[in-house]
Amino acid sequence: MSKKSFPVYTIAFLLFVFGIGYMVYSGVSSDSVYFLNVSEALAQEKTQTPLSARIFGTVANNSIERPQDGLGASFILEDYENKAQTIQVKYKGVVPDTFTNGSEVIIEGSMQDTVFTAKTLMTKCPSKYQKENREKNA
């Protein structure tokens, strides 16, 4: 390598490192979402409200209310381990078929006052379906 090409390689290397660093920084900062259970979300809400969060919990029995137009649902989300810890959830959108009382769900959105407004609602597929499929395929 000659002395004349050394600055060119140095500049190219620095641009490469800067480009990778910028992509990592912009990807992490703009798409950061906290993944919490209900108890952690309630503790977080008292100290500081995250801009967005993904919360895991169980739908409380007899808490599902559906609007007249059929889209969305309001329900109470219980902590998986401590059923006394709950969050009121409002969701507008298509509700999965497996969404029922007692189902495990993951919601993503933000806390406003004492209500969690969910943008997405995903249900965990019950393990009984996995067992039935294995028996049918065997």
Walkthrough of the structure:
The protein has 138 residues and is an alpha/beta fold. It has three helices and six strands. Strands 2-3-4-6-5 form a five-stranded mixed β-barrel. Strand 1 (34-37), helix 2 (38-47) and strand 2 form a beta-alpha-beta unit. It is elongated. The mean pLDDT is 81.
Distance between the termini: 64 Å
The overall strand count is 6
Average pLDDT reading: 81
Report strand %: 25-35%
Largest sheet: 5 strands, mixed, barrel
Order of SSEs: HEHEEEEEH
Cα-atom radius of gyration = 23 Å
How would you briefly describe this protein structure?
Helices cover 33% and strands 30% of the residues. The chain has helices at residues 6-30, 38-47, 127-137, and strands at 34-37, 53-59, 73-78, 86-91, 104-112, 115-123.
Blueprint (SSEs and pairs):
Blueprint: H1 6-30, E1 34-37, H2 38-47, E2 53-59, E3 73-78, E4 86-91, E5 104-112, E6 115-123, H3 127-137
Parallel strand pairs: 1-2, 4-6
Antiparallel strand pairs: 2-3, 2-5, 3-4, 5-6
Label this structure with key terms:
138 residues; alpha/beta; 5-stranded mixed β-barrel; 6 strands; 33% helix; 30% strand; elongated
